[in-house]
Each structure stands twice: as C-alpha cells, then as structure tokens.
Design goal:
By secondary structure, this protein is an alpha+beta fold. Helix content is 15%, strand content 37%. The strands form 2 sheets. It has a 6-stranded antiparallel beta barrel with strand order 1-2-5-4-3-6. Strands 7-8-11-10-9-12 form a 6-stranded antiparallel β-barrel. The chain is globular and about 55 Å long. It starts with 7 loop residues before the first strand and ends with a helix. The relative contact order is 0.17.
C-alpha cells in the first residue's frame, strides 16, 4: 500500500529478461529483500539490491498493462516505499495496481500551476470524478476537470520538481490508477456484477434509492 507521495526519482539502469534495475539512493536506506517499492506507480518486489540500485522482477502482464514498454536506460521513474503504520497519509490510498494507461494531450499554464490533460478510455474515466483522487505514474493528484474523453489535473511547481512529470511531453504515456473506493462502491451497488461495457447508471436518483 502506498500514498502517492513520491520520495525520489530514480533512473532505469536496465530493463529486459523479465527484470528491471533502478539506480537510486533514498529508497535504499532501509530496504530488505522482498520489500515493495512503487515504480511509476507499479508495485514491484525487491529481489536484489546494493548501495546504489535495486532489482525487481517484471511480468509480461505488467508490461502490457503499464507504460513500462516505453522505458529505456536512463528513463526517470518515480519511487515510493510501501506505507508503514507510522507514516503520514499525505496523498490517498494507492495500491500500486495499475488500471491502464493514458496519454498526455495538453499542457496549459495557469498562474503558478500547470494544467495537464490526459486522455483515457471510458473503462478508466468512469472512476474519475472532479475533485477526486487519481494516481498518475504513482503521484497522488486531485482531478480538476473531467470530460467524456479526458481529465485534467493541476500541477504545482513542487510536484513537477520532485517527480518525473518535468520530463513528460505531449504524447507521453502515463500509468493510471483510479481511486479504489469508487470501484468497491460500484461493485456493491451493482450486486457484485461489474458491467463489461461502461454504462451511465451512477445517477443521483440511483444513489438515493440505495441509501447514499
């Protein structure tokens, strides 16, 4: 379990043969074999480490579901160690299980902030709500706006400085993890049956009828 507050930006040293090697420093201070570290929002298990890097296994399913196929040697990646009971929950509950990827389609300056718009499929957008939380490449962000085909987040300078978002461009893929609470609520309200195709059944009347 993670919070979406990035601790460090590491660099890909090697990716291939079913493993990923990341050069880093801070997340290694108390690392143990078997620990979980989120890499661009993907929960990975440490299988080897030394003073300057750690190695994790990467399954084909992980590559298919995430933007890992775009990584190369030197790529910057967001890193976060797993949450402990003594940690502050500064972001929101992030599982490290990516729901899918989106594509950055627009940047727009707004005062000291930068608006970033990400296009995504309906299977992801159904769980993204205005002023709700979303994890992008593992970063806990607040949704500023949602449309039928994309959503926008507002980035303060600090977020751009301490994450890999400073290196992102229009067209860059990005990992998306939607708020897990929305998925549980949907499943309960539909009696455990999740529709294969997105349907607009989550209305105010529907919520009232079900006691919300």
């Amino acid at each position: 379990m993670f919070t979406g507050i990035i601790e460090e930006v590491g660099q890909v040293a090697r990716l291939g043969g079913g493993s990923l090697v990341i050069n880093c420093q801070k997340v290694l201070t108390d690392v143990q074999l078997g620990d979980s570290i989120a890499v661009n929002g993907v929960c990975l298990t440490v299988t080897h480490f030394d003073r300057s890097s750690f190695t994790a296994d990467v399954m084909p399913e992980t590559v298919r579901r995430t933007s890992f196929a775009e990584l190369k040697k030197g790529s910057p990646v967001n890193l976060e160690r797993a949450l402990t009971l003594a940690s502050r929950l500064g972001g929101h509950i992030v599982s490290g299980h990516i729901d899918g990827t989106g594509e950055i389609v627009r940047f727009a300056d707004e005062g000291n902030a930068l608006l970033m718009t990400v296009s995504a499929g309906q299977e992801l957008l159904r769980y993204i709500v205005e002023k709700g939380s979303v994890a992008l490449d593992g970063i806990s962000l607040t949704v500023a706006a949602v449309s039928d085909h994309d959503f926008t987040v507002s980035l303060i300078p600090h977020t751009r400085d301490v994450t890999n978002l400073g290196s992102k461009k229009m067209g860059s893929p990005i990992n998306i993890e939607t708020d897990v609470l929305g998925k549980y609520v949907e499943k309960m309200l539909t009696g455990g049956q999740i529709a294969r195709k997105p349907q607009n059944t989550m209305t105010l009347d529907f919520l009232r009828e079900n006691g919300f």
